[in-house]
Design a protein that fits this description.
With about 425 residues, the chain is mainly alpha-helical. The chain contains 18 helices and four strands.
Length: about 425
């Protein structure tokens, strides 16, 4: 039991940065979401869904709002898409409902097998580029330029402090220190306070905010035909993330059954679907199993008790909104950049010497950051994968499921642009 408790605390420490980073992204100027409400929602997702992962799925995984989809929620849906945040929360809710139906039926395996691995890898890489771009913007490295759209920003205190924080994060991460991200955020924040560029909090603790975003989703407003592509994108991206985490971590840690399959995969995916559905209710972007859970598993976590311990570690975070709100956006830039680096590694699975495979993957990879939309990257990736294989005479190499995804993607693009 002592080993499981230690593992649970370790998992919490490695993923606790999300309590600061997620509300910072969701409350980006232009979304209209209050920081305190987003923080409360983030902690609720972490606590309830990690607890469910331990008690129902009996797996040692922590659950939290996923990196990438929080940026998609804030920048693509709300800021660029003009979708009010209550409606965007409704999209997250319905995506969770679809994900639950998929996870509880054999359709889960069919969709998973239909998605080309190269498109899945390119999606992860594209989200990584998007996160990195947002991190560089927050740090001031990248600034608007009327001639070239974007350009190099001024080297000011944000850049210097971000670099210092990034160096600390990398140094501690290389030593497998669970405080790596938190230490970097703390260093940059302290520098901002000392330099007078951001005000220190007047109070350190406050009661949770259950009034601003909790249960404020617009369920019926999200049921518009034009929003279906975004809904499907959230569901598919959640499915990508979940399968990648469960399969990757299970194989690396030996959490497999007699057939070599991830243990309790169906139950884990059901919990992940509830994490998306529940996130919409609580007031956050969708939740997913965190790959950082491998840290606790390496410490000996093997059962659901590890997740239960991790869940209860999140509860005190409900009361730190004043402290968290005093952390400047550039303090979390290092986390976004390193998360982007981690996700971009998946692109090595793409064979760029085969154009019918490389072009769809590259289109997915580049469209996500350039359009600030995971939807555009995924849909065009599916379409080009089928079309280019057919053009080069390899149409039979495309599975029936992949052809189906391409047809659905065409329909979703027509719906999106017709409204």
């Amino acid at each position: 039991m002592a080993r499981e408790i230690t593992a649970g605390i370790t998992t919490f420490l490695t993923m606790s940065y999300i309590v600061l980073v997620n509300p910072s992204i969701l409350s980006t100027p232009g979304t209209g979401m209050p920081f305190s409400g987003a923080l409360t929602a983030t902690v609720l997702v972490c606590f309830t869904m990690t607890l469910l992962m331990g008690l129902y799925a009996k797996l040692p995984f922590g659950v939290a709002p996923g990196m990438g989809l929080n940026a998609f929620f804030a920048y693509t849906l709300v800021i660029n898409g003009g979708v009010p945040w209550p409606v965007a929360l409704g999209i997250i809710f319905w995506a969770g409902v679809i994900f639950l139906l998929v996870s509880a039926t054999p359709l889960r395996e069919r969709i998973a097998l239909a998605i080309p691995d190269t498109i899945r890898a390119a999606t992860a890489g594209g989200i990584g580029l998007l996160l990195t771009f947002i991190g560089l913007q927050n740090a001031g490295f990248v600034a608007a330029n009327p001639a070239t759209m974007v350009g190099v920003g001024p080297i000011d205190h944000r850049v210097v402090l971000t670099l210092a924080g990034l160096l600390v994060m990398v140094w501690l991460s290389r030593r497998n220190n669970p405080f790596a991200y938190l230490a970097g955020i703390a260093l940059v924040t302290a520098g901002g306070w000392i330099g007078g560029w951001v005000a220190a909090p007047t109070a350190w603790l406050s009661a949770p905010d259950f009034s601003s975003v909790f249960l404020k989703l617009d369920i019926w407003g999200a049921l518009k035909l034009a929003l279906v592509p975004a809904m499907i994108t959230v569901m598919l991206t959640d499915l990508f993330d979940s399968l990648s985490t469960f399969i990757g971590v299970a194989q690396a840690a030996g959490l497999v059954d007699d057939k070599g399959e991830p243990r309790n995969l169906r139950q884990g995916l059901i919990v992940d679907s509830f994490a998306t559905l529940g996130a919409g209710l609580f007031g956050s972007s969708s939740g997913t199993a965190f790959v950082e859970s491998i840290a606790g598993i390496r410490m000996g976590g093997r059962t659901g008790l590890t997740a239960v311990v991790t869940a209860f570690c999140f509860l005190p975070c409900l009361f730190i909104a004043p402290l968290a709100a005093a952390i400047p956006p550039y303090a979390t830039s290092g986390v976004l950049i390193l998360a982007g680096v981690s996700m971009f590694q998946a692109i090595t699975r793409v064979p760029f010497d085969r154009l019918e495979v490389a072009v769809p993957a590259f289109a997915t990879l580049i469209l996500i950051p350039l359009t600030f939309s995971i939807t555009q990257g995924i849909l065009w990736g599916f379409i080009l994968h089928a079309a280019l294989h057919a053009v080069v005479g390899r149409g039979r190499a495309v599975t029936g499921g992949a052809w189906g995804l391409a047809a659905v993607s065409v329909a979703l693009l027509v719906i999106e642009h017709a409204n």
